[in-house]
C-alpha cells in the first residue's frame, strides 16, 4: 500500500534535510502515518543539471503514483558567481527561472493537482563562507567570495516572481531569514548551509504553506486504526471498518 | 524512478524514529541517494494487530516493488502484563513468536531475497515507567508495573531464538542496551521509549547488521552522477553514462 508522497526536490540543502533536526525529517515526523516524505536532494546541482533528472524522478504517465506535493528548492548553486571558485555551477538568472518553469510544467503534466511549492535559496553570509573556505583550504582559500548575498537575492526575486506568474505558493527563505537578528550565525553553518535552527525555519515555512494548501497533517486520515480504536476482544472489526 | 526501499515495520519505537536524532532519520541520511527508508511504525500495536496490516503494507505479487530490506521491531506491547493497565495490548509469548514467524513468512513470499532483520524490544526500566505514569496520572497512576524488564527479556529471548531457527539476522536490543551502565536513564526516556542516545544504539546495531549483509551504503551506487563528475561544458555526457 502506498501512502501519499511528498517529494523534496533540490540541492544539498534538501539532501541534508534528514540530518539531526533537519527540515525533511521533521516533515516526515509531522506526517507520520499520513504521507511519506521522500528526499530527492542532489548536492552541488544547479537547475540546469536538475533537468536531466526530471523524467527519472517524475516519470510521466502514472498520475496514480505521482506525489501529492513537491518542493522545488534550487538556486544556491545557480547563483555561484562566474570567474570564482564555484564558477562551474553558475547558471544565469534568466535561465534559472526558465529551468524552474520547465520543472513546474513537467510536474503539472505528471499530475495537474500536485501541490508545488517553490523555495528560494537562503541568504548568503559572505564572511561565513570565507571562514569556512579558510578552515578547509587555509592560505589557498579564495580571496573573493564565490557567492554574494546580493546576487543570491536576485535569484530569490526571480523565484518569487515566477511563483506569482504561475500561481504557485512560494517560501521566500532569502527574505524570511534576514528578518531575524544574527541570521548569519543563527541559521547558517558555513555561510550557506543550514544550522538546526535554520532547518527549523524551513520546516515552519514549508509546513505553513502546506497547511494553507489544505495539506495539513491534522486533517489527513491515519493509514490504519489508532491502537485505542482496536477492541482487544474483536480486533478484526477495527480493520474491517478502516482497511477494506 | 524508485530507489531500493528499506521498510521499518514496528510499533511506537519505529513510529518515533524520525524525531530529532531518531534511528530512522539517521538511517535515511546514511542511505542518502542510495535507498529510501520508509517508516511503517504503529504506536501501541502488538504483533497480533500487526498481522492485519501485512497484506496492505507488503502486497504479494509485485516483487519488483518489494523492499530490499525490512526491520521487524515488535514485542514491547506484546510484553505488557495481563491484569495491569496495558492489559489489552498483551500477547502471550508463544503467540508473539508465532506472529513474528507469520510476518517473516509473508515477507519471504513477497521477495525471497529480502533482507529481514528482527529487533527485540528494548529493556524496561520499571522505576522510569512508574515516574512517567505518575507525571501523567498523579495519584491515579498504576501502583504495579504494566511491564517488567524480566518478562520483556523473555520476549527478547524468543525473538532471538526465532531468528536463529529461521537463519535471520537479529539485533538483541534488550541485551545490548543493558551492557552499558545507567542504561535506564541513558537510553530510555520514560522507561520504555528511546532517548536520542538510545536511538543511536538502534542505529548503530541496525547499520552494522545491514553492512554485514552487504547492504552497506558505501558500496551502493549513487542514483545519479555526483556533481563533480558533471562536465559543465557538456553536462549531458555524465547523465548518458549513468542514467540511460
From TrEMBL, chains A, B:
This is SGNH hydrolase-type esterase domain-containing protein. Coiled coil: none annotated. SUPFAM superfamilies: SGNH hydrolase. One of its GO terms (biological process) is lipid catabolic process. GO terms for molecular function: hydrolase activity, acting on ester bonds. The keyword Lipid metabolism applies. Residues 225-244 are annotated as: Disordered. Keywords: Hydrolase, Lipid degradation, Lipid metabolism. Belongs to the 'GDSL' lipolytic enzyme family. InterPro entries: GDSL, Iah1-like, SGNH_hydro_sf. CDD domains: Isoamyl_acetate_hydrolase_like. The keyword Hydrolase applies.
Amino acid at each position: 500500500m502506498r501512502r501519499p508522497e511528498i517529494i523534496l526536490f533540490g540541492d544539498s540543502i534538501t539532501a541534508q534535510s534528514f540530518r539531526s533536526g533537519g527540515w525533511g525529517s521533521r516533515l516526515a515526523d509531522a506526517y507520520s502515518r499520513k504521507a511519506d516524505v521522500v528526499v530527492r536532494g542532489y548536492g552541488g546541482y544547479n537547475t540546469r543539471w536538475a533537468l536531466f533528472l526530471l523524467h527519472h524522478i517524475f516519470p510521466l504517465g502514472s498520475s496514480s503514483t505521482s506525489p501529492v506535493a513537491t518542493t522545488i528548492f534550487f538556486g544556491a548553486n545557480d547563483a555561484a558567481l562566474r570567474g570564482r571558485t564555484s564558477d562551474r555551477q553558475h547558471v544565469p538568472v534568466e535561465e534559472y527561472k526558465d529551468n524552474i518553469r520547465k520543472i513546474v510544467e513537467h510536474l503539472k503534466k505528471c499530475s495537474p493537482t500536485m501541490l508545488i511549492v517553490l523555495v528560494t535559496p537562503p541568504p548568503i553570509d559572505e564572511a561565513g563562507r570565507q571562514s569556512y573556505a579558510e578552515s578547509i583550504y587555509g592560505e589557498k582559500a579564495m580571496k573573493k567570495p564565490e557567492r554574494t548575498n546580493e546576487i543570491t537575492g536576485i535569484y530569490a526575486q526571480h523565484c518569487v516572481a515566477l511563483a506569482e506568474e504561475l500561481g504557485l505558493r512560494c517560501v521566500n527563505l532569502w527574505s524570511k531569514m534576514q528578518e531575524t537578528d544574527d541570521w548569519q550565525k543563527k541559521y547558517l553553518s558555513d555561510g550557506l548551509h543550514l544550522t538546526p535552527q535554520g532547518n527549523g525555519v524551513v520546516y515552519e515555512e514549508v509546513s505553513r504553506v502546506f497547511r494553507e494548501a489544505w495539506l495539513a497533517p491534522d486533517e489527513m486520515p491515519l493509514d490504519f486504526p489508532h491502537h485505542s480504536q482496536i477492541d482487544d476482544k474483536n480486533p478484526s472489526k477495527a480493520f474491517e471498518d478502516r482497511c477494506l
